[in-house]
Amino acid sequence: MLNPGLRLLALFFAAMFIATMWPVYPLVSRIHPLVFGLPFSLVYLLGLTVISFVVLLVFDRRAPRDDDP
């Protein structure tokens, strides 16, 4: 049986995958407005990348270790 935290992580990354594909991405795939000189679609993808990094970091910090007593 999968750990509940691992199941939530898998659901989160499935949602992130969908957020970069057809149903969601065309809603943000435009050049304007520029954010810090970058097109909005690039900022959207960079934001998703940063969010996924933070989620993986939190998951790694909270996951039990094999060497824990």
Describe the structure.
The chain is 62% helix and 0% strand. It has 69 residues and is mostly helical. The chain has a domain at 25-63. α1 (4-19) runs antiparallel to α3. The longest helix is centred in the C-terminal third of the chain and has 23 residues, at 40-62. The radius of gyration is 16 Å and the shape is elongated.
Brief summary of the model shown:
With 69 residues, this protein is mainly alpha-helical. It contains three helices and no strands. α1 (4-19) runs antiparallel to α3 (40-62).
| Helical/strand content category | mainly alpha
Report the uncertain regions. none
Give the overall pLDDT as a whole number: 89
Shape: elongated
* Major sheet summary line: none
- What's the total count of β strands? 0
**H/E element sequence:** HHH
User: What count of helical segments does DSSP give?
Assistant: 3
Taken as a percent bin, the fraction of beta residues is under 5%
Radius of gyration, in Å, reads: 16 Å
- State the distance separating the first and last CA atoms: 22 Å
Portion of residues in helices? 55-70%
Name the features.
3 helices; single chain; mainly alpha; 69 residues; elongated
Fold blueprint:
Elements: H1 4-19, H2 25-28, H3 40-62
Helix pairs in contact: 1-3
